[in-house]
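Memo to structure team: turn this sequence into structure tokens by end of day. - J.P.
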Amino acid sequence: MRRGIASSISAGLLLVSLASPALSAPSASSASSPTPPAPRRVASLNLAADEILVELLPPERLVAVTSFADDPASSNIVGRAPAEAARFQHADLERLLALRSDLVVVAEFTDADFLHLLGASGLRYHKVEGLDSFEGIRTAVRELGGAVGAEAAAQGLIERFDARLRELDTRLAGVSRPKVLYWSNPHVWGSGTVMDAVIEKAGAINAGKAMGVKGVLPVGAERAFLANPDVVLVAGPGTREALAAHPLLSQLAAVRAGRVVELPGHYAATLTQYTAEAAWFLAHALHPERVPEQKP
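Reply from structure team:
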């Protein structure tokens, strides 16, 4: 298995933040400061911001993205980030200064020492955070839109996101909801995660939440087996095969009946508006009679 948990936790947390060495410094959204002018040279240091900013800014204003933006295993915007934008594999203050960035977009997991360095250097930053629910995504998009002076574009993005979710609600009204376990050996996604929202929006019950799991936690194969899900959801290369080869979980009725859904890595990784597409993908897998395949 090339990534294992990297296709989910690492994708959902580590890809969100290129945390290099990082002390609290004033952010772009500080209420105690006068509103600064809209930044003209925005640098993104997390994949979630990459995916949002390509929708909000013209290419010439996005001067840096993460290298993950070009990786089809984790990104929903392959080929859309400006070719001229610098690619960051890790946070690098010298490169940010050389780019003359006037706003750096970081994540809630970015190291505090690096944030201190940003503030000490005079670089403003905006923190994208709270991406653990659909409402958190809406708030993050709205706040990032305000930070880059693209409020109207942010509102349009939120409206398209909500329209997609409403369409799922309409299509899945009254459907019988299977119990779905999102398994990444040995971790399970429970309440308080965006994957919980995705599973429920896709017309299912999150088995992890039903087990009492909060957040993303290791639960062990025995407990997962006792949950007896109707469907097992996995993500990442080799995960389906690993499940089939597992001495205990291979005996789950869902696995023996082939009720295993493999979520593409770029949907497992996303913490942005693309969670609506992840929910659509899963809804089609669970309820093909109600939800058609996504358009290419």
